[in-house]
Amino acid sequence: MKDKHLTYAESGVDIEKEETTIQALTKGMTYRREGLGAPLTGIGHYAGLIDFGEYALALATDGVGSKVLIANEMKRWNTVGIDCIAMNVNDLLAIGAEPVSFVDYLALEKHDEEFAAQIGEGLRKGAEISRMSIVGGETATLPDIIKGFDLAGTCLGMVRKEDIITGENVRLGDAIVGIPAAGVHSNGYTLVRNIIEQSSYSYQDAFPLDTSTTIGDELLIPTRIYMEVLDVIRECDVHGLAHITGSGLLKLKRVTELGFDFHDPIEPNAIFKFLQEEGNVDDLEMYRTFNMGMGFVIILPPEQAEKAAEMTGGKVVGRIVESGIKVSNLVIV
Predict the structure, then answer these.
(1) Which residue range forms the structural domain that includes residue 193?
(2) Is residue 9, in this structure, part of any structural domain at all?
(3) Where is the signal peptide (predicted)?
(4) What Rg value do the Cα atoms of the chain yield, rounded?
(5) Do the beta carbons of residue 77 and residue 46 sit within 8 Å?
(6) Angle, helices 113-130/80-93, rounded to nearest 10 degrees
(7) Which residues are paired to 240 by β-bridges?
(8) Would the pLDDT of 183 be above 90?
(9) Is residue 88's pLDDT more than 70?
(10) Fewest Cβ atoms nearer than 10 Å: which of 11, 116, 203, 308?
């Protein structure tokens, strides 16, 4: 198996085709409300913003993805609720908005009280970390459609209009502060599962790089929720923010047309080294699929970078350049 280089596309998720599907889906969405509730951003940033007087309301929606299949394999579901909330909240933070409330959508093949209690445990913990309320949701029993379960949700946030951060203020020479990821978070799991399932390992096996845990438990480490970013926004002149999710560092193109030079990147978590070796995945594919140890990015003036790094447990990883995305000597785009 190691003679073959596994890729995200060959595993079933083609990022380029996904983009064309999104374009086809959204090209007819031309109606725009006027006045209170009018959109302040176009479709395609991390979160959508609408006019609400002196404030903008921010909306994001996302799910856990195929990580739920590993939860099923491990019969442990008490962390995926954190993932669901994290993927939404972090997208709000990437535009400068504070999360306020959340609604979830749980689609089931069949009902199980212990399973439901564990899902609720994760949602509760994620909401507590995010300092927001879960105000409702929907549970649907769909045995003809769902095999297992799917968990998604929508998050509402708010931000003063003058404090919205879209990336338009990013400048050449700005510093880039990277904040560590807890692990794989909630993206790229179609490739992750392909790697494990074609290897000699099972999810219940000890993780070779840390035998105190299993491969499955390592992969179920929940997505980090980056609430400390709000403190940085209050104390520093933040020019841009990015949540590193699906498509890896390619997500940075949402923030600015300028380039990113990561000359001192964060060391990837051990799980990425394991997956890369087992799947014989090349460096470029890894950085175009996973967060590779850096789950969030803050862009700000160089003189404020060390302060932001200290506040978040991150470090200065690079600077803004004219074009491209590069990690050390690896050209991402």
Answers:
(1) 175-331
(2) no
(3) none
(4) 20
(5) no
(6) 30
(7) 299
(8) yes
(9) yes
(10) 116
Does 131 have pLDDT greater than 70?
A: yes
Using alpha carbons, select from 138, 33, 146, 129 the residue that is nearest to residue 88. 129
DSSP assignment letter at 248:
G
**Measured distance CA(197)–CA(66) in Å, rounded:** 14
Which has the closest alpha carbon to 181: 43, 69, 296? 296
Q: Is the pLDDT of residue 30 over 60?
A: yes
Residue pointed to by tokens 């350049």? 321
**Does residue 182 have a pLDDT over 80?**
yes
Whether 7 is in a domain gets the answer no
Contact 82, 122 (CB under 8 A): yes
- 151 and 202 share one domain: no
Query: Residue type at 252?
Result: L
Q: Are residues 208 and 310 in the same domain?
A: yes
Q: Per-residue pLDDT averaged across 87-108, rounded?
A: 98
Q: Of 195, 184, 189, whose CA–CA distance to 244 is shortest?
A: 184
Same structural domain for residues 210 and 264? yes
Six-digit token pair at 182? 């807890």
CA atoms of 276 and 287, how far apart (whole Å): 11
Last residue of one domain, picked from the residues 163, 192, 223 = 163
Task: Report residue 2's pLDDT band, with 50, 70 and 90 as the boundaries.
Answer: low
